[in-house]
Amino acid sequence: MTERLPFIPGVAAADDKRVDELLARLTLDERIALLHQFTPGVERLGLAAFRTGQEALHGVAWMGPATVFPQAVGLGATWNEDLVRRVADAVSAEVRAMRARDDRVGLNVWAPTVNLLRHPLWGRNEEGYSEDPCLTAAIATAYTRGLRGDHPTYWRTAPVLKHWLAHNNETDRDTTSSSVRPRVLHEYDLKAFRRPVEAGAVAGVMPAYNLVNGRPNHVSPYLREQLRTWTEQELLVCSDAGAPSNLVDSEHYFATHEEATAAALVAGVDSFTDHGTESSTITGRVRRALDRGLLTETDIDTAVRRQLDVRARLGEFAETDPFEDVRDFDTEAHRALAAEAAEQAVVLLKNDGLLPLADDTRIALVGLLADECKTDWYSGTLLHRSTPLDGLYERFGTDRVSYTEGVDRIRLRCAAGRLLVPDAPAAEDAARGAEGALDPALLAGRTDLPPLTTDPGHGTELALVDWGNGVLTLRAPDGRYLSVADDGYVRASADEPGGWVVQETFTREPHQDGHLLKHTGRGGYVSVAADGVKVAAPGETGTVFDIEYVERGEDAVARAAADADVVIVVAGNDPHINGRETEDRTTLDLPPHQDRLWRAARAANPNTALALVSAYPYAVPDAHAGLPALLWTAHGGQAAGRALARVLAGDVSPAGRLPQTWYAADADLPDLLDYDVVGSRQTYLYFEGTPLYPFGHGLSYASFGYADPSVRQDAGTLEVSVTVTNTGDRTADEVPQLYVRPVGMPVPRPRRQLLAHRRITLAAGASERVTFTVPVTDLGHWDVARGRWSVTTGTYELLVGASCEDIRLTTRLTVEGDAPAARPVLADGLDAAAYDEQHGTEIVDRTKTHGDAVTGTGELLYRACDFGTDGVTGVRVEAAGEGTVELADGCRVEVPATGGPYTYVTAEADFTATGVRDLRVRLGGGVRIARLTFVPRGVDA
Description:
By secondary structure, the chain is an alpha+beta fold. Helices cover 22% and strands 29% of the residues. α1 crosses α11 (297-313), α4 runs antiparallel to α12 and α12 (332-344) packs across α17.
């Protein structure tokens, strides 16, 4: 059950009075200025400058060194709300501590991301918690509570949920529309947002770049119709960066920026993140929209009040700073918490007895990520760094651990010689982003180092890694990556790949007897010139290179593996390459380079384990079949390596659980842009195939028994209890999970649906009685016939187990609720988008402000439509565009050209039907239908 946070009426009233006073005394121009992300101060009123937006997804980001916790998907894998709340509490403390010395650090934090991990190829998979709305909501509620803090009145930070709504693709993300039918909207996408908001620790939301049902999220009616109805608190809606301009520039949804800005403001956007720190463009649009009557001063005041309300909650208007003493930064407790989180995020996928490792094991640690501690776009700068190699050295000793990276070692030869990295002085600058930047995309590459040149002799040996899809990185012997700065020259200058446009990646294209190297960031070919190696302008010819292999990575790995007792292959992704913000993945497959490495290790030594360190799932069926042990962890932050080593050694029994399904092959996936989880049978909720690893899966070094289930139903609440016993020989965590399966329902329901979970720690032989408390309404679904949430009378199986497939106990429950009912189409008509099934159609916007319609060349199915005893003799279709609408029994409605997609007419035709029956509606041409009504027998059409 969700508990609301405390509300102090007296103090709140004082803050409300201050907000009222400020709003009354601010001039119109001053109020308009507050609508931009970077608001100026108003000295005469004692109002300070303010900005919305401080990234804090898994630590304070973009502002320099800070504690770095596991990626969000890794926090989701802990299935531990208490831990996640403590992590967020530490993050919010560091926000306050950092702000005390740098007022650029904002208190309005843009976190967490609650977009559901519906599709594992989504580039931003690392930012979400789970594919399941229940788990996502639980983890998000914990994170927002930690960010809010436990002060009875004031908020340590003001968290904003991202990204509203149905956003799971980077491909054309600002122009694609997610077709989301009512059941998916209410049962899936909204649910992840609703529960954190209802818990009272959310200050606002950020709309996503995409459109939903043909309408941009930044003018979504759901902000008013759904979001703001869930709480009595004011919510601050902050636009995503550049999205207000997208309404005109890329989406072409409005003709002018004044119309677009007004529409967004009226829809509920309160703070406009656009044009960086330069606010005059947005404020000018607002002023002109006001002058043209597109909005009112009341619209402006409403948005300004919401911002001032959030600032009041942050204590800005309090007599003394309520958080003056919060200075916790990089404390011993924070470091220990980062280690605990990294350990709890490790998931043991398979173990045939190879793990844990004995203390005297001789280990060959190999792989491209074996000595890496990767950060991502929303990471802070590492204060501490632990790689798997560091962790194994610390735990087992340097004499028992050998290390081989497995890169391909090459030289690049061309007509002028071999590429040479010139000698350069040691770098004095810190890692990219260490100084902090409000927009790290603006950090420029180094130009103080000499560019590459050529050498008639041996040249420089480079480390080549193929990260998949032919995307390469090249690294010099001193560890620096080849990178390209603004001047176009290639230098060995980067500590890691990174930046909004990555400048450290290349592709190779066969050409003549060699290869051309194409720089992915600039789009041009690498060319050798008299003044150094540079990237030619797009369209210009590059230099042809011959790639000379000094050593293949798999050969080095095989040698190392043969001399060890056990091989640990660490594989995975670089979070800035092939799957990140702006770039979706194209496949679940492990990149071929890394696939070759684990196979070489296994051929040389059967005692090989594969540790996947990645921001997303992989399809590795051959590794599962051929290796005795596999593990997965997201990029675990500053303590990742030590955490993995402690799990491998058995100091910690793994208890992470998969927060999303790991599919066996790309063929199991729906289209990336297919958001209909019900109709396309997506996620563990509906997937009917056999996953490689199911949702909730994770093994342990201990074993657990489940017994004595009991169910009590009282006053709209279910209490499900079960006894869990550690039947193993060591202390370990277990994660009992409660699922429901509706039995024999009239509409498709999930195969299994998570209702609750609990992470518990049990000593060997110990037992604990675990009780889950669940509202009966959680058993329900969105009833399209009634247009509301409904719990159907019937039988429900309650299942308790260790994953959605590893069910240990099952019990049945009869629930009294709504009886299945036919659609009252004779009385109420049919909203076109409220279908039961569809093929070949999509939902679009009925108008630019509200409502849905359906278009496409396909078919809609509406089940159990009640046409009455006397029946109907005609149909009326509200439609726009041009085309045909066909109903069963030969009924055909011709819709003439209406003059535009938002110009609706009512077209009629004869149609007869009686009683309760299914109705199929076929669409043709470009017609958009919004609604169907029926003419009762005996009534003139």
